[in-house]
Amino acid sequence: MDKNDLAPDFSLLDQDGHERTLSTLVHDGAVVLFFYPAALSPGCTKESCHFRDLQAEFAKLGAQLVGISMDSPERQAQFAQKHGLNYPLLADVDGAVAHQYGVKRSLSFLKVKRATFVIDAHRRILEVITSEVSMNAHADRALAALRA
Fold this sequence. Notes:
By secondary structure, the protein is of the alpha/beta class. The protein has helices spanning 22-25, 42-53, 55-60, 73-83, 96-100, 137-147, and strands at residues 11-14, 19-21, 30-35, 63-69, 89-91, 115-119, 125-130.
């Protein structure tokens, strides 16, 4: 997926077992959809907590945060509870959505690439952020894209 592409719609369960659909989420404004390799891992914890800490800044810009990994809803719930992540964490258990977005790895312990998609209310991708090593870059660059 590239900038200006139409983001594929999907439906997945969140950490509370509620079904979330991208086309419904964007009704409330922009969505910052970030894929992370593994809930509760050190790097993903740092990234997700940085998003959490900047959540008010995203809200001021009318954007909502949505995390997604191939972990189960139960693991996502543990992750959310342990770190106070009060935004949806979606369970893409079979990797179908990661595949649609071009971030699923074929043969790797880390099942998905770390990538963030800033998606507008019309499901257009405003920005794509990829960095495997800079955990803070995802939230920082997503905010910059929304402010531009």
